[in-house]
Amino acid sequence: MSQTLAPRATSPEGNGSEKALRVGQRSLLRRFLSRPEVGSLIGAVVVFSVFFAVAEPFRQASSFSTVLYASSMIGLMAIAVALLMIGGEFDLSAGVAVITSAITAGMFSYQLSTNVWVGAAVALLVSVGIGFVNGLLLIRTRVPSFLITLSMFLMLQGINVAVTKLITGGVATQNISNMDGFDSARLVFASEFDIAGFNLRATVIWWLVFAAVATWVLMRTRVGNWIYAVGGNRESARAVGVPVHKVKVGLFMTVGFMAWFVGMHMLFKFNTVQSGEGVGNELLYIMAAVVGGCLLTGGYGTVIGAVIGAFIYGMTKQGIVYAGWDNNWVMFFVGAMLLTAVLVNSWVRTQANKR
Amino acid sequence: MSAMTTHTDPPRPREPEGSDPIVELRGVGKSFGNVRALSGIDLKVGTGEVTCILGDNGAGKSTLIKIIAGLHGSTEGEYRVDGKPVRFSSPREALDHGIATVYQDLAIVQLMPVWRNFFLGSELSTGFGPLRRLDIGRMRAICDQELQKMGIDLPSIDMPVQNLSGGQKQVLAIARAIYFGARVLILDEPTAALGVKQSGVVLKYVNAARDAGLGVVFITHNPHHAYMVGDHFVVIKLGEVEFDAPRSELSLEDLTHHMAGGAELDALEHELERGQLPTVDPLHDSTPGWT
């Protein structure tokens, strides 16, 4: 758009004294409270304190590295899912898409005896392609993404098991640990280092790196502005020239990319993939994003919130084990936490917006 | 500059009629199949001039602004911008000619901060390649400056737009259109959903835009609002211009009269005076109704 017309200095109220920039006038506390992720931050502190108090093993550094690892497994996908939700859409196929990606890479490399990196590249195409198809169906049919990705979820779930059985005769892919390129791939996707007794896993580093990149894109680039806009008001965004379709398809492809990444981690960590896994994880990703302040209706939320949401999940999952409670309580607590977080978030939001 | 307190103020000095119009319609009409929504519309919008288009619901006001805004093509007549015939196929093209429309739904995103809304779709960037990023400092400064020029006082340009009043949202949309190079501003019933005080706020900015040299097309069905700011009035009825006059040739009473239906209203008045009113059953009856 052209900016040829110089704005003229007329004011209906007799242009009074030039005021200083109205920035930073809200108090620090109010600005903090109006952040989408504030509820999840409080929640994280509470959950941490509870398990720190009741579970003795939780206090050790080695347990903390396990907590971080469990968080990163949900958190990596939660980053992409949070971006998608801010853009106003769901992806229910995200959980099984991870497994689809791992199966594709594993079986392609094994059946054609290629370097595992070739399999990984094919899997990347497939994963991003699935995201592209999701997005394309959405904008072409205007059917809600809930239904489109639910269909994709069921189809992928079926394909994963059926194709694996068809080719290998079992429900898992073949072990690829002695194939070319496996070691370098494992180094990238599934390595671990010991730093002063603290076991640091590659996924945790990648989790934080991707979170930082996603946050930067969301808050500091045009695309980020557009993501908020298409989720907040699709028609308005279109009216001012935002490429709504490209943004939405791009977001689904981002989820596809992240599914590929997590899938590669699983493949190179365990050497083989159980084809029936992944079901139910899509809801955990959404849970993490919502706990972190994303609205189901779109247009609101942050990636940092989703990271904290995933961290709360990781603490709960491992904390219950360390506390010696029955493992079946994990889902109960995760559910209760989600409910609390949603209520606290909406309450904080109304309070912060009151003035 | 608070001449707009009441509509009894004497008319202000006006730009002479007939200065080169930016937008000119000659005999423009639009048919949807067999239905003739609009026909024979002549309209001129010059710089620093407020043209009010009035009409009852379904009179064809919306069709007319959609033609001017580039959403519809006309099926007859001529549409000229700066004297040259044009044919727009999208609002974007109209915008490139400096014709901006502020719709009732405003094209804003409620949950986003004021400054992000201001620049949405036309964000300023800095840096190169993968480090290309929003020039947040400059965008905030410009947004703040532009809003101050329009006299909007907000506690913070970081507040989400949903916290603004209806009038402030209108003014934000107007300020944005002006900043991004609008020469003609089309306002689609900007006061329709607003209270008395908020309407006054918007009308002040209509004046401000006029004084800034923009041509304003102000669509409304409120003759009082129109008379407060208008330089030229066009009343549309059943898709045709019923009445077209500069401010100097009419009073608010004339305008209200035309707006309210003119001759039809006279007939209705006459009918009411004859006293042939329907009789109504007393309310205590369990089956109230017309008899």
UniProtKB/TrEMBL annotation, chain A:
Ligase in keyword set: no
Annotated InterPro entries: ABC_transp_permease (IPR001851)
Origin superkingdom: Bacteria
Cellular compartment(s): Cell membrane
CDD domains linked to this entry: TM_PBP1_transp_AraH_like
Recorded topology in the membrane: Multi-pass membrane protein
Transmembrane segments: 38-55, 67-85, 92-110, 116-139, 204-228, 249-268, 283-316, 328-348
GO molecular function terms listed in the Swiss-Prot or TrEMBL record: transmembrane transporter activity
Alphabetical keyword list: Cell inner membrane, Cell membrane, Membrane, Sugar transport, Transmembrane, Transmembrane helix, Transport
UniProt entry tagged with the keyword Transport: yes
A cellular component term, taken from the record's GO annotations: plasma membrane
Task of the protein: Part of the binding-protein-dependent transport system for D-xylose. Probably responsible for the translocation of the substrate across the membrane.
Matching PANTHER family: ABC TRANSPORTER PERMEASE PROTEIN YPHD-RELATED-RELATED, XYLOSE TRANSPORT SYSTEM PERMEASE PROTEIN XYLH
UniProt-recorded name of the protein: Xylose transport system permease protein XylH
Organism: Halostreptopolyspora alba
UniProtKB/TrEMBL annotation, chain B:
Region listing for Disordered, in residue ranges: 1-21
Keywords: ATP-binding, Nucleotide-binding
Lineage top rank: taxon: Bacteria
Domain ABC transporter: 23-263
Family annotation (SMART domains): AAA
Gene Ontology molecular function, alphabetical: ATP binding; ATP hydrolysis activity
Protein's name according to its UniProt entry: Sugar ABC transporter ATP-binding protein
Family annotation (InterPro entries): AAA+_ATPase, ABC_carbohydrate_import_ATPase, ABC_transporter-like_ATP-bd, ABC_transporter-like_CS, P-loop_NTPase
PROSITE patterns in the cross-refs: ABC_TRANSPORTER_1, ABC_TRANSPORTER_2
